Amino acid sequence: MLRQPNVSRRSVLISSACLFAWQASGIPAAMAAARRPLSSRVKSLIAQMTIEEKAGQLTLMPTPWTSAAAAKINPEAALRNVENLTDDAQAGRVGGVFNGFGVEAHRKLQTAAMKGRLGIPMIFAGDVIHGYRTVFPVPLGEAASFDPDLAERTARAAAEEMAATGFDWVFAPMVDIGRDARWGRTVEGAGEDVLLSSDMARARTRGFQGRSLADDASVAACMKHFVAYGAAESGLDYNTADISERTLREVYLPPFQAAVDAGCATVMAAFEDIAGRPIHGGREFLTDILRGEMGFDGLVVGDYNGDVEIAARGLAADARDAARIAIMAGLDMSMASGIYRDHLPSLVQAGEVPMERVDEAVGRVLALKERLGLFEDPFRRMDLKRQKARMRTKPALSLAREAAQRSIVMLKNDGDLLPLPREGKRIAIIGPFAEGPSNLHGPWTLFADNKEAVDLASAVRAAVSDASLISVVKGSEITAPIEGGIDAAVAAARSADIVILAVGEREAMSGEAASRDLIVVPAPQQALAEAVAAVGKPMIVALRNGRALALEGAILNAPAILVTWFLGSEMGNAVADILFGATGPSGRLPVSFPISAGQVPYYYAHRRPGRPANARYITSRYDARFPFGHGLTYGEISYADLVTSSKQIPKDGSLRVTVTIKNEGKYAARELVQLYVQDVVASVTQPVRELKAYKHVDLPPKRSQQVTFDLAAADLAFLGVDLKPVVETGKFKLWVAPSAEAAGLAEEFEVS
Ligand code: BGC
Q1: What is the mean pLDDT of residues 323-344?
Q2: What is the C-alpha separation between 229 and 180, in angstroms, rounded?
């Protein structure tokens, strides 16, 4: 069965309304389009509230007891004091807080809120991007599993833990497409592809929200950052974006639509502006597209100070003006800046913001609290016993190990160097990522304890029969040489039979405010790699990374390379599982690894150039070193017998595609079979290839299996000249291949 690739994609492409012609004042008709009916409880509360209380409900504040990691990203958070916040809660000056810690702290605030005049419970939010105390792989790593079901399970497990400590709302999933590897936040999403990102968006939303938001193990999801945050120019965080409406609709909106279709309760606005229009103040985005076209009926929250920053961008005169523009654009709840609390009362009084609009936003906040069951029991997610019982359970940790194994991508394995024997080999683990508790979890793990994660050296020692054969040498810091480090590393390599070189990026080199201008392994580590490789021992590179990297020299030329991202709590164990063949590698790249850093942004689904043969740099080809979808297994896989059910299908028809996958090797393998299509002649230049479906097949040694895809003609739709979805007749190419740039098996068919 095809994985319903374009259900959401098609539904998002419904309008050809010209984005850039929309006006920015007054309440548009589209606002009424996606309205959730309010309960009588909510209506009656709104009727009793003062404008100050309403503005309070629309105010979300960081907590003063935020963790050190969180405070680093949002420094103001650390400055606020608890007592103020408690007073604010009781006085109804704040509707919710985020990134607090633990049941006791949450209880304290909730108790204050419930003593307030109207007894409206607070909502507690948290950035739990890939696990709470049990940490799962960074989302980009997990996307390498190409397994939405796995992503749903890890999101579910994260929800169970966070909900046990008083959180109602998660600031995830991050569903931004990441096509520029310099942008640090690519690590938080599912990579460059529209289909994979949409599938992951849907799955993660479902996982967080469970069957019912009222469940004490469910949290409201927040798809973010709406929209095209990943298109920031130069890959620079917070930068402006300048993309066409076509690209906005074809590439950046579909994962959000997928999350909407999965019932995502909330959405966070993105920091950037698109072609000069800020998202936080852009009604065309937050209301007309999001509600009017996409049918979103939940709560829109701003990002941290993103509303007041529209003044810094020169789109509002001051904070008051920014508050007016943001609320009229459709931003329901303000995060951190406090500008709604400060200015909505006077804006309403002056007639600059209609009370009706404020009530609408308040209705959404209260409706969310109601759906979460907070009116029935404001303390429902704050239970000390549950907090203890649900942390780092055995099933959660074993899921973390499974997810970590499935996220690892084997780029190369020349001469079948891997898997390694567990006995009789002296192994030198060299590099700044060889051991120690740092850089295992990855960015955005505000609530986890590094010391609880398993590092590479410990896991390798535990995996071999004689741990005394393992030596560990750092050799280099991450971005600086160590005096004598290379000599020590070379000596260790000399006295070993095999080298595992653990190099790459520290976790703070990806995530928010962590863009890199050059996506390479830092120079001191490259120097270490060159020296160690020159010793001539078989070398496996275990890359630590939060983005695609352009690999060079000895790292690129190593016979075996594993992409191990930041894999979370069970990182070391999972890497050792792959190294020693407890399980085979099955991950595939969710982002293209380019030949050189200068190619970025590089993504496989680029449009066809007019002179393909000459579309290259003077010094290198214009394609990927390791393409999207690439990843090897321990099997010996071949593709044969591609058969399509017909050479011609009608516009409402479908094509059955069958292929046989064989494993001629001696190890079991999980192969990801990918179906790509190219529309050969169309009214708009189409991508060279687009992923339309993918399927895993588990093959024991010496076995083969048929894999079938059903491709509907409707899946071939794109946005025509008028930006309306169209399936054009004519010739199509189709590939079933092990990556976006592998030859695979090819066929042609026609839509008539
Ligand atoms: C980030 C968001 C995050 C928020 C709250 C912002 O800086 O962009 O992704 O959810 O902070 O911590």
Answers
A1: 98
A2: 11
- Binned at pLDDT 50, 70 and 90, residue 175 comes out as very high
CB of 289 closer than 8 Å to CB of 267 = no
DSSP characters over 270-299: -S-EETTEEGGG-HIIIIIIIIIIT---SE
Q: Would you state the pLDDT for residue 26? A: 34
In whole angstroms, give the CA distance from residue 678 to residue 682: 10
Please tell me the total number of residues recorded for the chain in this structure: 752
Residue to probe by mutation, ligand 1, list 208, 303, 305, most atoms within 8 Å of CB:
303
Please indicate whether residue 444, judged by its CB atom, sits closer than 6 Å to ligand 1.
no
Q: At residue 158, what is the residue type?
A: A
> Residue of the nearest CA to atom 6 in ligand 1?
304
| H or E stretch at 167 | none
How remote is the CA of residue 727 from the centroid of ligand 1, in Å? Answer: 39
Task: Give the β-pairing of 690-699 and 334-335.
Answer: unpaired
Catalytic residue among 303, 383, 455, 679: 303
**Residue of minimum CA distance from atom 2 in ligand 1:** 303
Exposure of 111 in the CB half-sphere (CA atoms within 13 A): 7
- The Cα 224–Cα 226 span in angstroms is 5
From the CB of 671, is ligand 1 less than 6 Å away? no
pTM for this predicted structure: 0.95
User: Residue 304 Cα, ligand 1 centroid: separation in angstroms?
Assistant: 6
Tally the C-alpha atoms within 13 A of residue 644's C-alpha that lie toward its C-beta: 20
Distance 659 CA to ligand 1 centre (A): 44
CB 333 within 8 A of CB 95: yes
- CA-CA distance, 416 to 713, in Å (whole number)? 41
Query: pLDDT of 4-43, one tens digit each?
Result: 333 343 344 433 333 333 333 333 344 444 577 999 999 9
> Contact, 436 vs 453, CB < 8 A?
no
* Strand order, beta sheet including 703-712: 637-644, 654-663, 703-712
